[in-house]
Known about the structure:
The chain is α/β, with parallel strands linked by helices. It folds into two domains: 3-276, Carbon-nitrogen hydrolase (Nitrilase/N-carbamoyl-D-aminoacid amidohydrolase, 4-Layer Sandwich); 299-583, Rossmann fold. It is built from 19 helices and 20 strands. The chain has helices spanning 18-34, 59-75, 155-162, 179-194, 244-251, 255-262, 299-315, 329-342, 359-372, 382-392, 404-425, 435-440, 461-475, 482-486, 506-518, 523-528, 533-545, 547-551, 580-583, and strands at residues 3-10, 39-41, 80-88, 92-100, 103-109, 133-136, 139-145, 166-171, 197-202, 204-207, 210-213, 217-219, 225-228, 235-242, 272-276, 321-324, 347-351, 375-378, 428-431, 453-454. The strands form four sheets. The chain has a seven-stranded mixed beta sheet with strand order 13-12-9-8-7-6-15, with helices on one face. A hairpin with a 2-residue loop joins strand 10 and strand 11 (210-213). The longest helix is centred in the C-terminal third of the chain and has 22 residues, at 404-425. The model has no long low-confidence stretch (mean pLDDT 93).
Amino acid sequence: MRRLRVGLAQINPTVGDLPGNVAKIKGYVDRARELEVDLVAFPELAITGYPPEDLVLKPSFVEENLEALREVAAYCRGITAVVGFVDSDSDTHNAAAVIYDGRIVDVYHKIYLPNYGVFDEDRYFRPGDSCPVYRINGINVGVNICEDIWYPVGPMTLQAQAGAEVIININGSPYHVGKSRHRERMLATRAADETIIICYVNMVGGQDELVFDGASAIFGPAGELVARAPQFEERLLVADLDVGAVFRRRLHDPRRRKESLLFPTPADRVRWVEVSGTAASPKHRRVEPQVADLLDYPAEVYRALVLGVRDYVRKTGFQTVVIGLSGGIDSSLTAVIAVDALGPENVIGVSMPSRYTSEASILDAEQLARNLGIRLLTIPIEPAFRAFTDEVFAEAFAGTSPGVAEENIQSRIRGIILMGLSNKFGWLVLTTGNKSELATGYATLYGDMAGGFAVLKDVFKTMVYELARYRNGLAGFDLIPERVLKKEPSAELRPGQRDVDTLPPYEILDPILKAYVEEDRSFRDIVELGFDPAVVARVIRMVDKNEYKRRQAPPGVKITPRAFGKDRRLPIVNHFREGAKLLG
């Protein structure tokens, strides 16, 4: 029986930490050798971390990445490894090194470079033009990278037609809600269409606003799931591939014979490379592959947020975070996520009551802090607010009525307090605003937007409630006090203030925002979904005129298909108005 023992190293690299990434790769090579793995594969750009962005434009960085690769190669004695790195000839390439027994045998250059959404690879890399097939332990293996496998006709097609029986596809595939299932449907289809085994390895971890969920998987030649690593965890996924099943199934599938007549494999695109000429050594026992379950919503979103916060804080060198606790739902959920990510000893809450803060909000913040076991500082803002309104601005504001300026002063005082604590003690400020607020500009620049990381930046308000109830369910009690979940949302910056005084109810607002921001639906399209035209027009105006605020917001975890930032790039100076002709 023809078998190949494959290990998929689902690791969490750090961009730019070449020594740390090399050490991690070596550790997984050791584990793979201990398990008698024939071939171990690492994620896309595992040497550099992904995405390295403009580091690729630094020649010194590229050279050090090549030195790191050579160090890894020398370490891979007695094993075959596929490792992602940045290659350099007359240009730079997103590349995969095929290593065997201490030397780099060959290099594959990624052909399809994504340049949409959060991806910008045309800025950095030149596409490859060759689709090699490697003879590894007597088995034909094609190697390609991430985007290459998403195309129905692409590098994998040529490799399969040339005789590849196994595909190693290395990835840095960022997470968004529901993507893992969509991705697996694609992989199962590719495997079945080409009658081939696909070994898909994805990285895991947070990098700036991106989170990588792992979920590395192996699919058999009928499109069946063979193995799957868990989401959001580092793991070495090991499986014994029954390569003989590929040949047996192909004998019963006439499609390949007919396709080869119409679409012959171009000789100038496919090359054969001998990696190791001997058959795989017999194993004492067959490895039973792991098949981890995929997480359902909202569990997967919550896990993504926790991992995103943990890695952003740790990878930027911080230890402790500080959060303004208002007693509201957003700050409560932010604090719970931070505690799950970092531990209660590394989370500081700050209650900053004003003359407009209700007693219930103060008590709810205190109860949450007790439930979480975190330290709570109480710093009233009334003295500073009085100084600003009665002294600093007394002459300039004379003869005017209190309004938004006075409301925002309170928010900015709170921002000063949090940033002061950050500067004094080295704590990272986590902001607490959500996507609904950021979309509509219902946030104070240099106030509640001031901070280092925006945990809920890509989480709509309605989802905030779903995540809070999910987390309470895990706890088995009201970790976030039930009163917080039931109280009407309010910024509490003036007497009797409610969010609905400024915004449509969130159950109406959020679907409109999703349609306009994430789906690019027109004014007419959104109205045809059943929403009031006046409300739609109002929401669109709020979104359009607040691009300048979003441009100045801190980074936050991406969890939807289209997040503010790299996903959605609009000019600040922009006179186009959606639906202007219809509205007159």
